[in-house]
Amino acid sequence: MPQISVVLPVYNVEEYLRQCLDSLANQTFEDFEVICVNDGSGDSSLSILEEYASEDERFKIISQENKGLSGARNTGMDYIKGKYTIFVDSDDWLELNALEKLYNKITALDSDILMYKFRFFNQDSEQYSESVFTNLEVIDASLENKNFNYRDVSDILFKISHAPFNKLYKTSFLREAGIKFPENLNYEDLYFFYMVFFKTEKVSVFRDESLYNYRIRNNSISTTGNERSFDIFEILDLTQDNLKNVNIYSKVKDDFLMFVIVNLKYVYLRLNERLRNQYLQKMKEKYEFYSLNQVKKDHLNTWHFDDRVFYQAIAVSSNGIEFELNYKKLYYEFLANHYGGVIEQLRNENQVLAQKNNDLKEQLANSSIKNKFKKIVKL
C-alpha cells in the first residue's frame, strides 16, 4: 500500500501536463501513487498519461465522460489506496521535495490535515508571487509545530487558503468524514475546505518553503465569468449553514459578512456586462439574507477601502448601470475624503512587500555564498 495517493484530474491540458507529471515522477519521496482521472479530454492529454503510465507503474489512469473538476476529484477519491491524500491540478506542479517534506511533517504530528505554502505563477509574465493567502502567515507562530482546530483560528478563519491542493489529508479522516466535492457547482473548493476543516481537531501547518506552484491562466475557468459564476451564492449559503452547524456563526459573523462581500466582488468583477445586472439583483437579495445591512460601523472601518465601497454601492443601487455609477462615485468620494489614509494603507502594504523582497535577496545572497564556499572547500 502506498503512503501517499495523488489525485490528478486531467482535462485538455496537453500544453502543461508534462511539467506536472515530471514533477511527480521525480519526487524525492517515492512511495506514492498517482490516480490520473482523464475527464473526457479531447486533446492529447490521454496519450501523454498513457506514455507516463507505461514507464512508471505508480501512474494509474481512469477515464470517464466529462464531469467537471469536482466529479473528477470525487472519482479519484474512490480509488485511493494511500495512507495520505493530496490533490494536484494538472496544469500546476510540485517542487521535487514536496511529498517528502509533507510526509515527514504530517507523520511527526499525526495530523488529519497539513496545510502548506504555495505560490502563484503567472503564465503571461512568467513571474512568481506569494501573498498572506498563499504563505499562511496569518496563522500564529505559536501553532507552528502542533495540531490545532478551527476554534483556535476563529479570528482568521476566512483568511486561510481554502484551496484543496495546498493540503495533505489523512485518507482515513476523509473517509470517516464522508465529504466529497459538490458536483455541478463552481467554487467547490470553498465548500470542501470548511466542511473538512470543521470535522477535525488535528490540523497543522508547514510554511518553511513553498512546495506547490499554482499556474494562473487568463482563459482558465477560475478567471472567466459566465452563468456558472452564480454558483457562488449557493456555496456561500452552504458555508453559512456549516458555520451554524458547529455553533461558531455568532462568533465569526462580522468576519463572515466581510468574506461574503470579498467573494461577491471577486465574481462580479469577472462577469461580462450582460450578466452584471442579473448578478446585482441576486446580490440585493443576499444583502438582506445575510443581514449585510447590519454590519457594525467599527467593523466596516477595518475592511479594505475597495470592499467598503463595493458594500455601500450594493445598498444604494437598483440596477447594474446604477451600481456602476454609484460604485465609481463612492470610490472617488472615499479617495477624496480619506486620501491620506488610503495612501498610508498602500504605503504600509508596500513597505511589507519591500521588506519581504529584501529578506529574499539576502537569503539568495547567503545561499550563493555558501555554494561558492562549498566549491572552494572541494577544490
Automatic annotation (TrEMBL):
<dbReference type="GO" id="GO:0016758">
    <property type="term" value="F:hexosyltransferase activity"/>
</dbReference>
<feature type="domain" description="Glycosyltransferase 2-like">
    <location>
        <begin position="5"/>
        <end position="134"/>
    </location>
</feature>
<dbReference type="Pfam" id="PF00535">
    <property type="entry name" value="Glycos_transf_2"/>
</dbReference>
<protein>
    <recommendedName>
        <fullName>Glycosyltransferase 2-like domain-containing protein</fullName>
    </recommendedName>
</protein>
<dbReference type="InterPro" id="IPR029044">
    <property type="entry name" value="Nucleotide-diphossugar_trans"/>
</dbReference>
<keyword id="KW-0175">Coiled coil</keyword>
<feature type="coiled-coil region">
    <location>
        <begin position="343"/>
        <end position="370"/>
    </location>
</feature>
<dbReference type="InterPro" id="IPR001173">
    <property type="entry name" value="Glyco_trans_2-like"/>
</dbReference>
